Target: Protein trichome birefringence-like 19
Amino acid sequence: MMLQSQATSTDLRPCKNGQYRTLMAILGGALALLILTTIPLSFPLLNYSLLLLKTSLESPASAASAAFRPQIFSSGNLSLLSALPCDLAIGDWIPNSNPKAALPYTNDSCWAIHDHLNCLKYGRPDGGFLRWRWRPEGCELPSFNPAQFLELMRHKAFAFVGDNIARNHVQSLICLLSKLEYPIDVSPSRDEHFKKWKYMSYNFTMAFLWTTHLVKSKELTTGGVFNLYLDEYDEAWTSQIAGFDYLMISSGQWFLHPMFYYENGQVIGCHDCFLNNVTELGIYHGYRKAFRTAFKAILNSESYKGITYLRTFSPSHFENGLWNQGGNCLRTEPFKSKDTALEGMNLELYMTQMEEFRRAEREGRKKGFKLRLLDTTQAMWLRPDGHPSKYGHWPQGNENLYNDCIHWCLPGPIDIWSDFLLHMLKMEGIRSAQERVQFAHQTELNQR
Model:
């Protein structure tokens, strides 16, 4: 009887003045609100990646670029799994599932490869070093998609700042993009240290700005010895970053040379100078101060407001001697991560970079600058097989050229850097949104 009484008092039949319809409408609205709230929170990365590319694809474009748009969505690179957060830095090189698959480019198909990186042209007998792919722990990294990259770079400008290794990266990227388009050289001069190219169909400008040490430096007449002005900007590149949307800085191998360190115009010490009246400060002191000054130049710039990437240290792989003592790199397969680890100088240089990056990142956040870490060190440490060795040099008579275990063959392992970069570009919207939420939360806590 009690159950019957309760049912009578809460009768939901439609004949009861529309109460049933009203309550169902309320419940339906609540359910819809719940769905609309939880789905974006559950899958923000996928939503943003698709929205980002959809927005860029709906903008006016040339017929040349439109022909390649279907592959952006048919490639599978925008699946939910490929958009999930992923630590790119840690993983292993694994054999390609299809070892006979065509390479993204070859030394015959791309004109951008300099001869000292053109391992296949100059007789490297093995091609196995080209048949590996990087698999980060816990996720899959999509291979580079030139159509996606160029769409994301539409109406943008990207400058790569650094030394020979940075130029190595730029040549790799040009070759990867050559499947769609070659750029036009729009460099302001013939100086090979400062180059600028334009992808006309996308209104995308890419530049290479040369610097050996990121700060002002001067090579002494003795050769191979540098004066490093640790507190002074290298204006050769800092004066040219205005208007760029993206900047990637890097430096490393040049710091192994003997150096005299200057601050406030005075010698404060050195690295490998072996002079009794000059304090030996070591390589890491100069490395730290150089990155600190480079980041200062960027964060104090009034004309550059773009996103800055630090590409981490690229290790060399000389074995059985130094570069000038007969050392070489003759391995034909990658290391396994479980069998080796960064140590010694490589680890110390990497950690120094990381510390200065985190310091600059905190400072940049206060000023509204975005700094990002393109962490390639571990992946490249595992690739002793990817250097030119003796196969990347011009065969010029009896000229004695050292074995190159510093730069990277093209095509080769360095192509993975563009895979990393594209993944990070696609994640940028979510990363920025997360930072805004964190900043707002921290501001609220500080105001309490």
